[in-house]
Amino acid sequence: MNVKSLFDLSGEVGIITGSAQGLGEQMAIALAEAGAKVALVDINLEKLQKVEERIKKLGGECIAIKTDVTDPLQVDNMVNIVVKKFGKIDILINNAGVVSNYPAEDIPKDEWDKVINVNLTGVFLCTQRAGRQMIKQRKGSIVNISSMSGLIVNRPQPQLHYNVSKSGVIMLTKSFAAEWAKYNIRVNAIAPGYMRTPLVDKVYPRYGKDWVKYIPMGRIGDPSEIKGPALFLASRASSYMTGSVLVMDGGYTAW
Ligand SMILES: NC(=O)c1ccc[n+]([C@@H]2O[C@H](COP(=O)([O-])OP(=O)(O)OC[C@H]3O[C@@H](n4cnc5c(N)ncnc54)[C@H](O)[C@@H]3O)[C@@H](O)[C@H]2O)c1
To answer: What's the distance, CA 251 to chain centroid?
Structure first.
């Protein structure tokens, strides 16, 4: 196959959760630019509709569906809407995520529940529910956004609950990959390092200088730099990869 067509998503349908801003917005644009029809999913409908307008201006076909990824009924409803509108699901990018910082001894139970629910249970629910459609089709590519925090403990900010949720995403990726390879469904993960999104903006003034010291490339990532890795894992370009974790961190975990 010609190398350009390996990355061509014409005729494919992709869902991207948490796509109202940040990395999710960039990955939705990447899929649309590669020719896919995209379903934008987030709890923030107002921002989601701005991304929808942006993608439509680029000439892409897309739909915005307000969904809380932690609610199985809302996830089922979202999957039904996508299948009704576009007829199938080829790609799912599980990106919705939240973070907070507490010393381990002070993490409130509510905060533990929230982070595990969105970052881990949300990925499980969307994968399971969209996966049922992919199993029927005998085709699918799922990309889970973990983090380098699933592989190492960040410093100086304390975030045990977040780190645990992201390491859970890595094992969830491998487990789904092993079970569903027989259905021609690939499941891979990306482990980004620090990327300058709204999630990170809040704490960047406090921690940014420290972080950059530990990054061999000497800078944090621009959100658009996830477009290539996401398209690679979503597309035929990675056809012999499943259960893999693609680290994209400016070298942070190499030190
Ligand atoms: N920015 C980074 O440095 C970085 C690094 C590693 C991993 N990540 C991961 O990448 C993903 C995206 O991060 P980001 O920096 O773009 O964050 P962000 O806060 O800019 O965007 C996250 C999006 O998820 C949505 N969301 C939150 N809870 C949701 C829910 N219950 N249901 C549906 N949508 C929900 C938010 O509304 C928001 O639009 C997250 O999983 C994050 O943990 C980010």
So the answer is: 20
